Amino acid sequence: MDLVDKGAMLPLMEEFYTIQGEGFHKGTAAYFVRIGGCDVGCHWCDVKESWNAETHPPTAIEHILSNSKKYSDTIVITGGEPLTWDMGPLTQGLKAQGQHIHIETSGAYPLTGVWDWICLSPKKNKLPVGDIYQKAHELKMIVYNKHDFIFAEEQAAKVSKDCMLYLQPEWSVREKVTPLIVEYVMKHPKWKVSLQTHKYLNIP
């Protein structure tokens, strides 16, 4: 576990080359690295199998580096909650390969690593910590019910003025909440609509 604690190994759940489906970079090719381990506990999470890090074998970051450079210049680190672990060694290795590095995070743990794009998606049960609000390039708020609009505004008040703001329907209730999001964005045009387009395209 010492190597995992130092970020030299990470509990790798899966890695795959696909099209980014959400947010600002939707429609672009990227290599996704999904890191296991998350204690944020969103009841609607669509990758609950990522929560228990012990079910995902510690993998040397050299393996991730070697695989990633075969596919894409853009690497997306996701989870789980990747900031559970020290992202410094992995991101430094990716940078040394000349790659652009994105992270998708709840911000529930301190920000580590070197990032070209930070997608912050705060959750009510474990709020972001540290200075990630001011460093985020994109705020992606998941809308499951009407109260989530209030939470979204509370979170938007904490990010920088240059941070892009997205409202995304939770997939299982998309038919109910998408019209609410459309109406909300038309009334509050600082927000944009984000859809999980990869699910409509039936790709990972």
TrEMBL record:
For this entry, the protein name equals 7-carboxy-7-deazaguanine synthase
User: How does the annotation summarize its subunit structure?
Assistant: Homodimer.
The source organism is Croceitalea dokdonensis DOKDO 023
Q: How is the cofactor bound?
A: Binds 1 [4Fe-4S] cluster. The cluster is coordinated with 3 cysteines and an exchangeable S-adenosyl-L-methionine.
**What does the entry list as the binding residues for substrate?**
19-21, 34, 78, 204
Q: Which GO terms describe its biological process?
A: tRNA queuosine(34) biosynthetic process
Q: Part of which pathway?
A: Purine metabolism; 7-cyano-7-deazaguanine biosynthesis
Keyword line: 4Fe-4S, Iron, Iron-sulfur, Lyase, Magnesium, Metal-binding, Queuosine biosynthesis, S-adenosyl-L-methionine
Query: Per UniProt, where does S-adenosyl-L-methionine bind?
Result: 44-46, 80, 121-123
Identify which cofactors the protein needs according to its UniProt entry. [4Fe-4S] cluster; S-adenosyl-L-methionine; Mg(2+)
What is the stated purpose of this protein?
Catalyzes the complex heterocyclic radical-mediated conversion of 6-carboxy-5,6,7,8-tetrahydropterin (CPH4) to 7-carboxy-7-deazaguanine (CDG), a step common to the biosynthetic pathways of all 7-deazapurine-containing compounds.
Mind giving the lineage of the organism this protein is from?
A: Bacteria, Pseudomonadati, Bacteroidota, Flavobacteriia, Flavobacteriales
